[in-house]
Amino acid sequence: MFVTARPRRVAVAAAFALLAVAGCTSDDDKPDAGRIDVTTMRGAFLQAADIGPTWTAPEASADPQQMVSFCGGTVAPPSIPPGADPVSSSFADEGETGAQTLEQLALVYPDEKAAQAGQALLRAVADGCQPTLSVPAAVTSDKSEPAYTESVEVRELDETGWSGFVLVRHKKYEASHPGVADIAVAVLTSRNVVLVDSYAIYQLNKSESAAGFEADWQKLVGSVVQRVG
After folding, report:
1. N or C: which end of the chain has fewer CB within 10 A?
2. What is the pTM of this model?
């Protein structure tokens, strides 16, 4: 079982939700048979019990066609590249001084060429992200968020035969409302699938990145791709 460091209880407005799904694989669906299908990816996704005892699926389901933000700030998330059959799963762990979220999205394409084209479109979005963003305080009908700065770094990534990139974001709120968020969005391709795996940890009354963040997101991503091969 993989257990991430758990924050104490809190409700965090930045936590996001996607449709939670579960499944299993058969011998015929294993990647050594060739093309990876939806059932295989569904079965490879981590479930709450795999991550830790306090992780749960969200009660409400969001649009499974909605991707997570790449660039942070107020920049809209990218659209899902055309031609994919998406399958997704989401979990969260909320505490008194922070929260964690995990979003898993697999874009299952008809063939490897289509998957590579889909990843190229997502990489173009990532490469267009500003390295630093400053966002003023905002108050809407459903939330109030203090001003913050956010950095975005794009790195090459290779994990057990899956290759691509990861966006690592660090969000720091103004001193009068201390808090930080660390987000990793990994985009990896193998054969006909593009995996978009996002882990985020939010901490209130903190000014530094969460200890173990780098190791945690890599373990979460690695656990999924190792199940597929």
Report:
1. N
2. 0.84
**Domains annotated on the chain, with CATH:** 27-228 (3.40.1000.70)
CB 206, CB 171: distance < 8 Å: no
User: How many Cα atoms are found within 13 Å in the side-chain-facing hemisphere of 117?
Assistant: 10
The CA R_g of the chain, rounded to the nearest whole Å, is: 17
CA dist 47 and 90 (Å) reads 9
Q: How far from chain centre, in Å, is Cα 119?
A: 15
**pLDDT grade for 58, boundaries at 50, 70 and 90:** confident
C-alpha–C-alpha distance, residues 145 and 202, integer Å = 13
62: pLDDT confidence band, cut at 50, 70 and 90? Answer: low
